[in-house]
Amino acid sequence: MQFLNLEAKILEILKYLNIKNFRLAKEYNEMPVDIAFVEGTPTTREEVLKLLTIRKESKILVALGTCAVTGGVPGLVNMMAKKEAMEVYDGFPPDVPIDPKPLEYYVNVDYNIYGCTFSKDELIELITSLIIGKEYRDKEYSVCVECSLRENNCLLDDGHLCLGPITRGGCKALCPNNGKMCLGCRGPYEDANIKGHIKILQDMGFTKDEIIESLSLFSYEKFKEVISWLKEE
Amino acid sequence: MAKRRISIKEITKIEGHANLSVELEDDKIRRVIFGVHEGSRYFEAFMKGKNYMYIHELAGKVCGICTVAHELASIKAVENALEIEVPENVERIREMMLISSHIQSHILHLYFLALPDYVNAESAIEMAERDYDLVKKAFRIKEATNYMTALLGGREVQPCTLVPGGFSKRITKDVIERYIKKMKEIYPLLVETAELFSSLEYPHFERKSDYVSLYDGKSIPLYNGKIKTLHMEFEGEEYEKHFEEYVVNYSSAKRSLVGGRDYMVGALARLNINPYLREEAKDIALSYSIKFPSDRVAWINVAQAIENVHYAIEAMEIADNVKEYEPMHISPKNIDGEGISAIEAPRGLLIHHYKFKNGKCTYANIITPTAMNTENIERNLEEYLKDIAGESDEVIKKEAEKIIRAYDPCISCSVHVIRTK
Known about the structure:
The structure holds two protein chains of two kinds. Chain A has helices at about 10-15, 45-55, 65-70, 80-85, 120-130, 145-150, 175, 195-205, 210-230, and strands spanning about 35-40, 60-65, 110-115. Chain A is mainly alpha-helical. Chain A has a three-stranded parallel β-sheet, with helices on both faces. The radius of gyration of chain A is 19 Å and the shape is globular. By secondary structure, chain B is of the alpha+beta class. Chain B folds into two domains: about 5-35, no CATH class; about 45-415, Cytochrome-c3 Hydrogenase, chain B, CATH 1.10.645. The longest helix of chain B has about 30 residues, at about 90-120. In chain B, the strands form six sheets. A three-stranded antiparallel β-sheet of chain B has the order 1-2-3, with helices on one face. Chain B has a three-stranded antiparallel β-sheet with strand order 7-8-9. A three-stranded antiparallel β-sheet of chain B has the order 13-14-15. Helix content of chain B is about 45%, strand content about 20%. At the A-B interface, helix 1, helix 4, helix 7 and helix 9 of A face helix 1, helix 2, helix 4, helix 5 and helix 6 of B.
């Protein structure tokens, strides 16, 4: 969906790439393809099989957006007892539920485009890099870096439970720019000092539960270990 | 007896995954099944236990298209539950945000999902090969309306500026003026779009069913109002009394009836319930001999294009009277409570319902427009296909898809709301 928000840029992209398969916008859809963009993450067996097929029939697989990269908001259900979650469906969900996981749990992922919603700029950057054969690299620095560059007031200083210091940059600190603390929608970057940040948040007076709630919102699967460490600490 | 079965495994050009199966015997329709086969989602489950300030952030993720509507419905229910005061100015700014996101959603549906059916193209990509300027125009409106939403919401999808009671950022006069300027810029394109979609040849099929929309007796409300059907009027808070919900075994979305009748929500329902279209919009429709109320299902498309013009004027008027907004710290009066909200999402009525204890959510229920429309889609398909049952499989498929697409169903939205009593 967000792909269509590239708007007129899609018309530019079409000069270099053919869109072979896009069920949302096309009647006739074909495989195999050179590049497959997968948004979301499987929650049924059927969808897992579909993902495996897509992997087999594409040269490059891109995980598009937080659900695909970290399991995202739907991954919150993985923290709950299955029985309790299934009460939404009166104990009888329409199909055997599968825990939302990052796509990389099932298949080899070539590139990740982070964020909920993902950054259109980064998607364009990746597509351009692929077209001209340039290397595309993940941003291994925090949202804090981009936030400081914009000389924003530090939301931690203002007492907010901000995840900026451990969250992967690339969003140009969109939420802090708008006065909203970083909720961590892009997940942690490679060398993030997660335990260090938890210590800071605890010193600020946030409880374990509040910190766990915040960490899990978008990336439970990525913070799982540190969350169980924190619970026992 | 000649039996045949027509099935579409995955209906294209709609949001999410749905299938259609039509069983015929001697060119008579035996059964029509519109099934939703999206995996289960558990929003109402994992919202439980979450702090009230995160609820609308999570709600926004229910949908990729109408994130603005979900966030607004959610935050409004949270504010109702915890008695958080919302200044009128804030409500007006939120309405502006809702309008630009409505227009964006309609444009996406009209040009990219619906129009290919009427110009014999398989997709907008093919349309672009034939008429580049037309697709470019659609993108221009989409881009402009996304820009307007982002002005107020920080970004066009999943706005990040909403906080209970207001916004997290300043909304300056300059921002409001840029919003108005952009809307003025695309207004002629919205008129052209309304003319284009009023001029298309749609299926003639009509069927009397009920319509449900917000109602305030003077406008076509999106953010505040009672719920009105052709037969009754009630407050949003009373939704549980009037909507009967049930499940069918072949679909993962809940169905619903109102007063025992199937009903439609969305643009056509809004215009059928609220005879308050602005003259500028009404005149376009009239010049193509189109009048509302109407039972012609495929005119949902026309209704969307026409209401775009109506709401564009409305938004400019609201914006003219909006004051600057300065963020302030708001804390809830209560940390316990129950709240319900009903607003109009692009696809129709949207209800969010929460309960809180100690500021944490203990109950959540979300009823989306597509879940409300599903029964109506199926019944209308059955009636329409009766008329054309003698046609070839290809024609039946194509016509069925036209009807389904007219509703602009958002399947992913509809599946997490399967709760039976």
